[in-house]
Amino acid sequence: MSPILPVFLLIASLSTAYATCDPAALYDPTYAADAAGKGGVEVSRWLHLRTSAFHEPVSYTAAWNALEASIDSHNASHVRVIYGGTAPKCRTGAYYGLECAWNREHLWPQSYGVGESSGLTAAAAPRTDLHALVPSLKALNSARSNRAFAQITDWPNDDGRCGPKYVGCETPACTKTTCGVKGTAQWGTDPGFWTPPAMYRGFIARALFYMAVRYDGDEPNTFNLTLGETPAKGGGGGRGLEKAPYVFGALSHLLRWHDDHPVEAWERARNDAVCAVQGNRNPFTDKPELAAVVFGGVGTAAEADTSDAGKGFDTWTWSLVTGLAVMWALYIFGMFRWFV
Ligand SMILES: *[C@@H]1O[C@H](CO)[C@@H](O)[C@H](O)[C@H]1NC(C)=O
Ligand SMILES: *[C@@H]1O[C@H](CO)[C@@H](O)[C@H](O)[C@H]1NC(C)=O
User: Fold this and answer.
1) Domain of 28?
2) Which of 22, 64, 102, 217 is buried most deeply by CB count within 10 Å?
3) Protein residue whose Cα sits closest to atom 13 of ligand 2
């Protein structure tokens, strides 16, 4: 075997690292342009493969560090917290001698098929997945508990829910020590419902869309996650494939939020930052029009975005070009040595 071949293979594999964080390389432009004409199941399967192929799950500790250092860093001393505001970067005991004010919130609750409380190991990929793991004020994380997301502030007062006399429906939701920003409200338990403030509604919808295509129970230590109107717990223990799926939602509210609160610049930056750490992207942040294709929509299913069609090289082409350039350089270098 030529001694150059291993070098070529090494360089080719190195050059693929992080290349998939370029959306133009990640989504097959021909397929994406045509996605709206395909069935939801087929597109969902395609997105499942695109989100799992490059995903290298991190540890739960590494996830904490990455949230603080880059993904949700607000500035040198503070992190952005879901449900509004910021909190000092700290470790337990390190913040003015008090317990740390923020911890990790699972937007898809651990007890609904992503964490130890649903029978998975501590290192399970869905539990440490940074697309749906965010800093939260500790008190609000506890207050939200495992409530599903819905816009309860719009519920009519005359159906016995969220009328002025029903404690717990106020906005913002408060604990003894902490309040969310206006727009945060809660109602009911088991699991009940939680309304995040407007600036996080679209992001949360897209995070849950991602979880539902990323995890279908076909890998060890995962369950089949699906979205619906009524949350339900699937079969516990072992592989999820043959078990009932875990259902979370509420899907109709998430679809409405997705339409009403389009992707913002900070979400795109967060998507890039997560990809830099775990290697995969949230396709619903990159291509919002695919949500209607996969989950059905409110309003019209927007045309698939074809703007990146034909733009740039894909990962494999870049590897080939890099590899050939290196082979050429080694060849010239060898000739040069031959003549001196
Ligand atoms: C970081 O942001 C927090 C919250 O907005 C602010 O109180 C603090 O002064 C900022 N610190 C720096 C170093 O900019
Ligand atoms: C996951 O559950 C959904 C809803 O029941 C089902 O349509 C889908 O086929 C399941 N996926 C797998 C891989 O079993």
Assistant:
1) 23-144+199-296
2) 102
3) 216
The answer as to whether 259 is a domain residue is yes
**Ligand 2: which atom is nearest the Cα of residue 217?**
13
- Domain membership of residue 28 (yes or no) is yes
* Within-domain flag for 53: yes
Of 339 and 262, the structure prediction assigns the larger pLDDT to: 262
* Interval 179-228: pLDDT, tens: 999 989 988 888 999 999 999 999 999 999 999 999 998 899 999 999 99
* pTM for this entry: 0.81
In a domain, residue 45? The reply is yes
* Closest ligand relative to 78 C-alpha: 1
> Is residue 280 over pLDDT 90?
yes
Residues with CB under 6 A from ligand 2: 216-218, 224, 226, 241, 245
With a 6 Å cutoff on the Cβ, whether 41 touches ligand 1 is no
Q: Determine the pLDDT at residue 28.
A: 84
**C-alpha 76 – ligand 1 centre gap (Å):** 8
Nearest CA, atom 9, ligand 1: 77
Q: Is any atom of ligand 1 closer than 6 Å to the C-beta of 214? A: no
Q: Is the CB of residue 73 below 6 angstroms from any atom belonging to ligand 1?
A: no
Q: Which ligand is nearest to the CA of 79?
A: 1
- Residue 246 and residue 121: Cα distance in Å, rounded? 17
- In this predicted model, which residue has the larger pLDDT, 93 or 120? 120
Tally the domains of the chain: 1
